[in-house]
C-alpha cells in the first residue's frame, strides 16, 4: 500500500478539523479501510485516527431508546444485554455478518460507512464509476451474480453489504453526525443513497462529517422478528439476499404493524411502505406474505447472472415473515431454515 | 498527550507489550500489526495467509480479544497488549488448547494452526459458545484448507467442556 501521514485525534473538534481536508480519511476499526488501502482503491494522503474519541459507550435515552456509540464494536453491540433484550433483531443481524475477529474490530460507525464489495470496485484495472467517476461500469454485462436487482442505475449496480444496517432500517434508527458546521441527525432511511448518476457517493455525509452515534427508538416487537440471511456458504459470507422483519400482532394474530427490509439487493437497505401496508390488519397467510413480497420487490430487475435473486428474494421474504409471525427468529448458529 | 502526527509518512513511535515483553518501535503508518510482528520483531508464528482478513491465519489476541492482525495498523495500538501463538504456552508447558489440538489431531499441514489457536483462545474468553454449532459458527473466521474442521471443533469443545461448571 502507498504510505500516508497519520494523526491521532485527541478530541472530536480536532478530528473534524483535520478530517475536513480532502484526501484525508477517518480510521476507526479499519477492517474495510485497511483492505481498501492494500488494493489501492483508497489512496489517502493521511489518516485521522478517531479511536480515542469518547464514542465508545452504549447509553440509555430518555424516551426509552438506546444510543449506540459510533466506536462501540459490532461484537460489543451484539452481545450487550440491553441490545439483546430490547433489540434482538439488531443483535441477530450483526452476528450474521463477518467473523468473530472482524466483529471485535469493526465499529458501528464504520459498519454504516463500509464500501461495496463489488469485485470491479476492488479491481483497480477495471472500469468502475464508484471508484473512478466516468470510467464506466464493468459489472453491467460482467460477473454480477452478487450484485443489485433494485434501485440500480446505468452507472452502477453495486450492493451495500451491511447486515447491521438492514436491521437499523427496520428499527428506524437515527444517525448522529458531527461536522465542521456542527451536529445533525439523519434518519437511517436518508443516510445511504441510491447510485443514480453519482455512484461514488455512498451516503449523504458532508465533507469532514463524522458519525458519533446511532440512536434506536423504543420498540415492542417482542419475539416477532427475524434476520434471515441467504449466502453461498453457511457463515462468513456476504448476503445474496437477506431479510429483516419485525411485526406487532394483536391477540388474535392480526398484524398491527409490519417493518420489512432487504439486504444484498440494492445500494442501500431496501424498504417499501406499500409492502408493509399490505400486511397491516391481516392474518398471516401465504397469500398475504406473497403479496407483500411482490410489493417489496416491485421494479426488481436481474442483470443476468443474478436473475435468481428475484425468485430467492421472494421466497426468503415469505419465509422470514412466517418466522417473525410465529415468534421463531432464525438462529445464527443452527443453520437450518425452519 | 495522546496526539501523534506523522507528516511526510515518517515513522511513528509505538510501545507494545507482546507476549509479556515491552517493545518500543517506530513504524511507518502503513505498517500492519501483522507486518510489525513478522518483519520487525521476527515473530513468525503468526501467519500471513490472505492478508485481506478472509482466512484468519494472522489471528492474535489484542488486549485479550481475537483480531486479524493483517487488517489493523500498528500505529493505532500504542500501549496495547498482544499475545501471539508464541505466548500461549508457559515455557514448555502447552496451554490446554495446544494440548487438545495435539490429542485430537486438529491439524494436518499446520499453517492455519497458530490462528486457530489464538482464535479459539479468544472464543473461550468471550464465553458465547456452548454447543458444537456455536463453536463452528464462532470459529468460521478461521479457514483450514486441509479440512481439519471436525477435529479442530472436537479439540475446542474438549477444553470448553472442562471449563464449564457441571450443570
Describe the structure.
The complex is a heterodimer of chains A (338) and B (167). Chain A is of the alpha+beta class and 338 residues long. Among the domains of chain A are: 5-52, Uridine Diphospho-n-acetylenolpyruvylglucosamine Reductase, domain 2, CATH 3.30.43; 225-326, CO dehydrogenase flavoprotein, C-terminal domain (Enolase-like, domain 1), CATH 3.30.390.50. Chain A is built from twelve helices and eleven strands. Chain A has helices at residues 12-19, 33-38, 74-78, 81-86, 88-95, 100-105, 108-113, 119-122, 164-170, 273-279, 286-296, 308-326, and strands at residues 5-8, 24-27, 46-49, 58-60, 66-69, 174-179, 182-187, 210-216, 225-230, 241-249, 255-263. In chain A, the strands form three sheets. In chain A, strands 4-5-8-6-7 form a five-stranded antiparallel beta sheet. In chain A, strands 1-3-2 form a three-stranded parallel beta sheet, covered by helices on one side. Chain A has a three-stranded antiparallel beta sheet with strand order 9-10-11, with helices on both faces. In chain A, helix 5 (88-95) packs antiparallel against helix 9 (164-170), helix 10 (273-279) runs antiparallel to helix 11 (286-296) and helix 11 (286-296) crosses helix 12 (308-326). Chain A is globular and about 60 Å long. A five-stranded mixed beta sheet of chain B has the order 3-2-6-4-5, with helices on one face. Chain B is elongated, with a radius of gyration of 17 Å. The longest helix of chain B is centred in the C-terminal third of the chain and has 15 residues, at 149-163. With 167 residues, chain B is α+β, with helices and mostly antiparallel strands. The N and C termini of chain B lie far apart (50 Å). In chain B, 46% of the residues are buried. Chain B: Pfam families: Fer2 (PF00111), Fer2_2 (PF01799). Chain B: InterPro entries: 2Fe-2S-bd, 2Fe-2S-bd_dom_sf, 2Fe-2S_ferredoxin-like_sf, 2Fe-2S_ferredoxin-type, 2Fe2S_fd_BS, Aldehyde_Oxdr_Iron-Sulfur, Beta-grasp_dom_sf. Chain B: This is (2Fe-2S)-binding protein. Chain B: It comes from Hymenobacter crusticola.
